[in-house]
Design goal:
globular; two-stranded antiparallel ribbon; kinase activity; about 25% strand; alpha/beta; 9 strands; phosphotransferase system; Fructose Permease
């Protein structure tokens, strides 16, 4: 994942914490979102782009396009923060041959069919299985809302 500095699972995608705390703290120049539905919704894309900090580019892509761009090294020399709504996407990336960085789970809202593991983290069985697969593959997965909170292993909440 040449050019990538951080991977975050946050179902809100780009919002205040991502824009002001994570993106600026990590000095990123691009926020990439991989989400098939959002990538084809011009209204949602426009709102997300407005939420990005000034001077930070956005890439809001469908999975296959993002995968091709990453594999082609399109982000070399940049500082990219990847944001996805679900860890399931990250497992798909891993299975497609992408070597993932450590993963930070920030916010996964309480929804029907989810179990709450932490105040800000609720997961379906498929999402929890995806996290467990990442962990079994040797990828560090932490639960951390903002950068100045301790990065605690997600396993502590299961």
């Amino acid at each position: 994942m040449e050019g990538f500095v951080h991977i975050r699972v946050d179902d809100r995608l780009i919002h205040g914490q991502v824009a002001t705390r994570w993106a600026t703290g990590l000095k990123v120049n691009r926020i990439m979102i991989i989400d098939d539905a959002v990538a084809v919704n011009e209204t949602e894309k426009s709102i997300l782009r407005m939420a990005a900090p000034a001077g930070v580019n956005t890439s809001i892509l469908q999975f296959e396009k993002a995968l091709a761009n990453i594999k082609n090294g399109n982000y070399a020399g940049q500082r990219v923060m990847l944001v996805v709504k679900s860890p399931v996407i990250l497992v798909k990336m891993m299975e497609a041959g992408i070597n993932l960085l450590p993963v930070n789970i920030g916010n996964m809202s309480n929804r029907p069919g989810t179990t709450q593991y932490k105040k800000s983290i609720s997961m379906t069985e498929d999402e929890k299985a995806a996290v467990e697969k990442l962990l079994q593959s040797g990828i560090k997965v932490t639960a951390q809302m903002v950068p100045d909170e301790p990065d605690v292993s997600i396993e502590n909440f299961f």
